[in-house]
């Protein structure tokens, strides 16, 4: 008969698995010990443990889990007290201890910058090289905001008279100070991407008929041009998955989306549809959403997905592995050291998308940081000529006579072979240099000049 209490020792005695002492009649009800149920047990063969020993053991386990959750939360939020034993209660640990984290307020006279209060670079140790790199990025972007962006007030006045004036144009008008706007910026806690607000100039309409991008103009005696990293998300996927067939699509002189449109859709003119489908697959979209995004039938979208899976099996395996890791751990880590939170229940849509976006962002800023030390003949680093940053695009204002040389320097900083780790096959990250123009809209009126 199986015994469930520890004081029935008429036929035999027992020792406690946790303290090694004898379990006696007066010790009361004990705890049956299954093999491996207590970590750190003194006796691996003991069948029983004192009730009091088991209770203490469970309390210690809860405390250890609370501390583990606290440190993990601090690391994800990039807090300075991410060391074991620091006096902080995480939101996760509240359900164990019942405590509430104390709110901290700056002391009188202290100054906290907008970047500190509105941005939380998360998910890395505050003393890691990644943290110092993020500090450099914060300083660079803050410099762009402090310099301000010059606005064409005449065009702004015309656009404001339009009954269908967009909210972005209205926000530019509200933020205008002396012919310039000085936006604030924020950084995504998930992917690290930078976005601007008050106003968000990145949301100015690209359509030339809207004239919204005519608002952004160059400094006196200078011209604007843009540098755009071509297909950076798709190329990061190729570098991460290391599928030889997928990497081949990005060789110099090849248009990956046009080739996939011809091969899988039977018409190279469906390039835009193929591009939307490839991005949608990488970001976990279902077949109906893929069909809607690409303006195709569900059958055509399903056939495209099937063709991709047959032609790039290693790519498919990498996606499945990434999703499985995210679902198990609740997070992913980029090759740069950033830990990305992923909701386990949404891993099929979030895992690959967040990993690729975060990695592409870090690859982009690798090139941007190169511009901070590249001193030019005017005594300024190239980075000081940046007027606006988007996800994978930079807007420069440079002297008109130096456009060719400065655009070449920008290409040298951003365009390079990229590999996730040593020994892996690299993928080229090309850039596109726009023509020079007085306004942001002028840079888009001519065809892009791709520079490999």
Fold and architecture overview:
With 452 residues, the chain is α+β, with helices and mostly antiparallel strands. It has a domain at 121-232 and 358-452: Alpha-Beta Plaits, CATH 3.30.70. 40% of the residues lie in helices and 13% in strands. The protein is built from 15 helices and 17 strands. It has helices spanning 51-76, 94-97, 114-118, 129-147, 153-160, 167-175, 232-241, 244-248, 256-264, 271-282, 287-294, 298-311, 313-329, 347-370, 403-414, and strands at 14-15, 22-23, 31-32, 48-49, 149-150, 180-181, 184-187, 194-197, 222-229, 331-333, 339-341, 386-389, 393-399, 416-418, 427-429, 431-433, 449-451. The strands form 7 sheets. The protein has a 5-stranded antiparallel beta sheet with strand order 12-13-9-16-17. A hairpin with a 6-residue loop joins strand 7 and strand 8 (194-197). The protein is globular, with a radius of gyration of 29 Å. Mean pLDDT is 78; it is low at 1-12, 25-29, 80-123 and 447-452.
Please write out the topology:
Layout: E1 14-15, E2 22-23, E3 31-32, E4 48-49, H1 51-76, H2 94-97, H3 114-118, H4 129-147, E5 149-150, H5 153-160, H6 167-175, E6 180-181, E7 184-187, E8 194-197, E9 222-229, H7 232-241, H8 244-248, H9 256-264, H10 271-282, H11 287-294, H12 298-311, H13 313-329, E10 331-333, E11 339-341, H14 347-370, E12 386-389, E13 393-399, H15 403-414, E14 416-418, E15 427-429, E16 431-433, E17 449-451
Antiparallel strand pairs: 1-2, 3-4, 5-6, 7-8, 9-13, 9-16, 10-11, 12-13, 14-15, 16-17
Helix pairs in contact: 7-13, 7-14, 9-10, 10-11, 11-12, 13-14
